[in-house]
């Protein structure tokens, strides 16, 4: 939850280092992290292993915090399940006293995602505003972003011209958050924004919580800067081959 702001364990640091090595050749343009300590340490470890982005500023955002669990925070998961059972409900839909509802978590995720979309549109507009400079989305300029999980994803991944695993993007954003929060964010992508999913993804995959440092990759297209109808493709979900 939010109320117990513990650091990573020794295992957590090893997992964060492994994620950093896995993503070491990915050139990020922006990094956002939850402002809880375990997420901050994970983001710092990932950037510390990166070939290109060691000095990139990490921006901390309270909208990326884990779901608030109220009276259940700092207690074993079994206690939360027992509370839900006593209330005649099931996890994860059960909301402990003082906790956030799933709708409230999803609203935080929606708000942050719309902020990212606005950021991307402003970047693209700024690029087009330069005299004689073609937009990065035209494919004639911009960075090549090489992703390490090409062999692990389905045919949902867009194929760049000429093959390989590089794409030209206006922005390549790393977001470091928490399991229950991200499950709600992905639910928002699927149910509200009609995200295209990998063909091999099952409902159990979709509803499961990511393992620590699991990597999910989404490609967002905003046609003509249209913030209301983003086209979202899930390339991979909770990828954990680095673990």
UniProtKB/TrEMBL annotation:
Highest taxon of the lineage: Eukaryota
A Gene Ontology biological process term: regulation of pentose-phosphate shunt
Hydrolase found in the keyword field: yes
GO MF entry, a single one: fructose-2,6-bisphosphate 2-phosphatase activity
Binding-site residues for substrate, renumbered to this chain: 38, 66-69
Family matches, as CDD domains: HP_PGM_like
Keywords: Hydrolase
GO cellular component: cytosol
InterPro entries, A to Z: His_Pase_superF_clade-1 (IPR013078), His_PPase_superfam (IPR029033), Phosphoglycerate_Mutase (IPR051695)
Presence of keyword rRNA-binding: no
Pfam families membership: His_Phos_1
PANTHER family linked: FRUCTOSE-2,6-BISPHOSPHATASE TIGAR
Protein name: TIGAR bisphosphatase
Encoding gene, per UniProt annotation: Tigar
């Amino acid at each position: 939850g939010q109320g117990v702001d513990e650091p990573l364990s020794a295992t957590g640091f090893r997992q964060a280092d492994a994620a950093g090595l896995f993503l070491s050749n990915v050139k990020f343009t922006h990094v956002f992290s939850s402002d809880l300590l375990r997420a901050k340490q994970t983001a710092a470890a990932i950037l510390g292993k990166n070939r290109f982005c060691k000095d990139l500023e990490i921006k901390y955002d309270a909208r990326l915090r884990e779901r608030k669990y109220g009276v259940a925070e700092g207690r074993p998961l079994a206690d939360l399940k027992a509370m839900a059972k006593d209330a005649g409900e099931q996890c994860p839909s059960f909301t402990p006293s003082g906790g956030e509802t799933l709708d409230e978590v999803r609203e935080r995720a929606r708000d942050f995602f719309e902020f990212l979309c606005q950021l991307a549109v402003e970047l693209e507009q700024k690029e087009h505003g330069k005299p004689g400079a073609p937009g990065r989305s035209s494919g004639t300029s911009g960075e090549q972003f090489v992703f390490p999980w090409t062999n692990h994803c389905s045919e949902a991944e867009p194929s760049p011209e000429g093959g390989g695993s590089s794409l030209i993007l206006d922005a390549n954003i790393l977001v470091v958050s928490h399991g229950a929060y991200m499950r709600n964010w992905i639910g928002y992508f699927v149910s509200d924004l009609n995200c295209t999913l990998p063909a091999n993804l099952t409902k159990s995959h979709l509803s499961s919580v990511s393992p620590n440092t699991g990597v999910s990759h989404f490609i967002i297209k905003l046609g003509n800067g249209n913030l209301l109808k983003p086209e979202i493709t899930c390339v991979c979900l909770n990828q954990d081959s680095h673990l």
